[in-house]
Specification:
By secondary structure, the protein is α/β, with parallel strands linked by helices. The strands form six sheets. Strands 10-11-14-18-21-22-23-24 form an eight-stranded parallel β-barrel, surrounded by six helices. Strand 6 and strand 7 form a beta hairpin.
Length: 711
């Protein structure tokens, strides 16, 4: 790779070298063609030496070609900004305005030496200023006057660290659940927002403070079986499948009677049948929508209109996308990029005409979001009634599907021909290709980080905590060209992203938790902890010798962390104990006979390590003490899950999340990464016990008791 190309890559933030996080750590020199491809996707042509030189010059001069940056993100202790102006002019006025456009009395002083640069025979000066007046955290408008012209920028003033709920002065606990998996006697075959309200009451009765949820965002209306919560079409809105029809005001007893046979049929199926359930629910939602429209004089219709106005352009775009997609998917293959060109962007006149001609159908898609938001808010109100001190802990996916409303609506900020993934690590030795759309770092800043901020706000709504999936993306994200299997990292303005995260956290009183399993840069976790961003820790990762040695003692766990036994991508405890996950991978051709044998031998050692750790921590239930070594996993130790949960509850981590799959001894995992529905029923397993029966289930009672001994 030529030196100029390396210089351009380093300047723009494209890695030419990186290391993975596999058990046998490897260093990589990135293929030059990958570097060129990614640079080109970022807007830097580099096919020739001349293009590389021009790209470098453009990057070096970019700050000198505008008076103000689009946004300045600062910590309130040190609010600074710089101004670029022709040497022949002087700054005549500096002003600051708050969010209501009211002038803020603020004093400015220059700091450091003035810099100069000549561009196209014109000399420019750049001066840095500090605002010495103490400012409240929030967003401001910065105004600079030069030669009869006003220039404006946004100033984001962040706190020193993010929000922490007062309850975290001590250790607490809660549940980690997949809402779709909630099994109740009253739901329609998939968990819903009424189930969530009931779970809040159960959590409160059990002494829990938090309920961790899978991503609840909108999935594809036309392909309900594309059920991965991490393949959203919009992270700004909710999945209508979670609507409880019986709680929709326009739904009637006669409607329920007419649907009774269909409801019973889908509830009898072994796995969640997303297609049947979603079609059934939307059929009745369409009927409810028409009934609401028939009473436009009602307060209900007025609330709907207020919701649409409040959600504005983002809701308009989602509904338009869904309506067009619903029509075009019948004749066009390839998603929105294959639509007629005039429909491929929301601002096109043809899209406006389509919206006018299909207002009723577009209104229906808005109605589903209106009702989903209303019911989720009702579940949130149960949090307040029951006194859960943290409440809902929502999960925000690292990216969004490329064939999505969010991508279609914001094409100017997403990279067009690469998708997010991950290099090899200890859990996924082959790496991962998620194919998720990812932001262009440069364009994101030009847009004042608005797309990032909107996603944060949408998911902090009704939440007391938020989990950022693959939090390393605040600093860097592994991207892979769509037509290739290898990729490289691109870098983001980490300080800005972290400051905005802290700011939104405090504005919404929402704890931030970063999922950091994978390839974590050196010093990254320390940077998060300094800003009170909690880490995520799981039992299977808290081990010595890179996962080959013993399990760490509870006191070893980080304090500022949310911990659990595993995640939805990992085998639950009983499955892990018997090695069913190894057998599954082998049966699907994901590992060789030799690898299977090696994994079984390692699992035997792992079981012994776990038993020894439980012994050392003195966490076995008194009436179910360890009775042997259980060689080759020939038996499931009675009380094992209680001992493990008490072990985790003893940990130093402030929050422990109990997975109901472990409590109820489920021996199949929710999601097997790297597989689709034709291989494994991902995201389709219901819990084996109805929600109404949990309070009297012996396993539930014993495990809750085990946790409460320590928290």
């Amino acid at each position: 790779m030529s030196e100029p190309l390396q210089q351009l890559a380093e300047a723009v933030g494209v890695a030419a070298h990186f290391s993975d996080a596999g058990l046998s750590r490897r260093d990589y020199d990135v293929d030059e063609n990958i570097v060129r491809f990614v640079l080109n996707d970022l807007g830097y042509a580099c096919a020739t030496a001349e293009e590389i030189s021009a790209g470098l010059e453009r990057w070096q001069n970019r700050r000198w070609q505008k008076v103000l940056e689009s946004i300045y993100v600062c910590v309130r202790e040190d609010v600074i900004f710089d101004v670029v102006f022709p040497a022949t002019e002087e700054i005549s006025c500096l002003l600051l305005f708050d969010g209501d456009n009211q002038k803020v009395e603020a004093e400015f002083c220059p700091v450091g030496e003035m810099q100069t640069r000549c561009l196209n025979d014109i000399y420019y000066r750049k001066q840095t200023y500090r605002i010495t007046t103490p400012l409240a955290i929030g967003y401001y408008v910065l105004s600079v006057r030069l030669a009869e012209k006003n220039y404006r920028s946004m100033l984001a003033v962040a706190p020193e660290h993010g929000y922490e709920p007062p309850v975290l002065e001590q250790k607490t606990w809660g549940f980690a659940v997949q809402l779709y998996a909630i099994n109740s006697k009253r739901n329609w075959g998939v968990g819903d927002f009424t189930d969530l309200s009931a779970l809040v009451r159960l959590a409160a009765d059990s002494g829990a403070s938090v309920i961790g949820l899978n991503p609840l965002n909108t999935l594809a209306h036309d392909y309900p079986e594309n059920a991965s919560p991490y393949q959203s079409i919009s992270r700004l809105f909710l999945n209508p499948i979670y609507i409880d029809l019986e709680n929709v005001p326009e739904f009637t007893a006669a409607d329920k009677e007419s649907a009774a046979a269909e409801i019973a049929a889908v509830k009898r199926e072994e796995f969640i049948n997303y297609d049947k359930i979603y079609r059934l629910k939307t059929r009745f939602l369409e009927l409810c929508y028409e009934r609401m429209l028939a009473h436009k004089e009602s307060g209900r219709y007025a609330e709907f209109c207020d919701f649409c106005n409040r959600e504005g352009r983002e809701l308009d775009n989602l509904a338009a996308f869904q309506a067009i997609y619903e029509e075009k998917t019948k004749t066009v293959w390839g998603g929105w990029p294959a639509w007629p060109e005039e429909l491929r962007a929301p601002d096109n006149a043809a899209v406006g005409e389509y919206v006018m001609q299909h207002r009723r159908r577009i209104g229906f898609f808005k109605f589903m979001q209106f009702e989903a938001a209303r019911q989720f808010a009702l579940a949130r109100s149960e949090i307040e009634k029951c006194g859960l001190q943290i409440g809902f802990y929502r999960d925000l996916a690292v990216g969004v599907g490329k064939d999505s409303a969010e991508f279609w609506s914001n094409q100017n900020v997403f990279l067009p021909h690469v998708g997010a993934g991950a290099p090899p690590d200890a859990f996924f030795p082959g790496g991962q290709k998620w194919g998720l759309g990812c932001f262009s770092p440069e364009r994101l800043k030009e847009l004042q980080y608005e797309p990032f901020i909107k996603v944060l706000r949408a998911n902090m709504k009704n939440a007391g905590a938020i989990r950022l999936d693959h939090v390393m993306s605040l600093m860097r994200l592994f991207v892979i060209p769509d037509d290739r299997q290898s990729g490289t990292y691109i870098y983001y303005p980490f300080a800005d992203m972290l400051n905005l995260l802290a700011l939104e956290s405090c504005l919404h009183r929402c704890l931030i938790v970063g999922e950091s399993i994978g390839n974590v840069p050196e010093g990254f976790i320390d940077a998060l902890r300094a800003r009170h961003v909690y880490s995520l820790s799981v039992l299977w990762a808290e081990r010595s010798a890179g996962g080959w040695g013993g399990f760490y003692a509870p006191e070893h766990y980080p304090s500022d962390a949310v911990t659990s036994v595993g995640t939805h991508d990992m085998a639950p405890l009983k499955m892990w104990w018997f090695g069913y996950d190894i057998a599954l991978s082998h049966s699907l051709g994901m590992m060789s006979d030799e690898e299977q044998t090696r994994c079984y031998h390692k699992r035997e050692a792992d079981r012994k390590h776990l038993l020894d750790s439980l012994d050392a921590a003195h966490v076995w239930p008194e009436d179910r003490l360890r009775r042997g070594d259980y060689l080759y996993g020939e038996n499931y130790p009675e009380g094992l899950e209680e001992a493990v949960h008490r072990f985790m509850a003893k940990s130093a981590s402030k929050i422990f999340l109990l997975q109901l799959e472990d409590v109820l001894q489920v021996d199949q995992q929710q999601n097997l990464p790297g597989t689709d529905i034709d291989v494994y029923p991902n995201w389709r397993r219901r819990l084996p016990v109805a929600l109404e029966d949990l309070p009297t289930d012996e396993r539930y009672m014993r495990n809750i008791s085990a946790v409460r001994k320590e928290r």
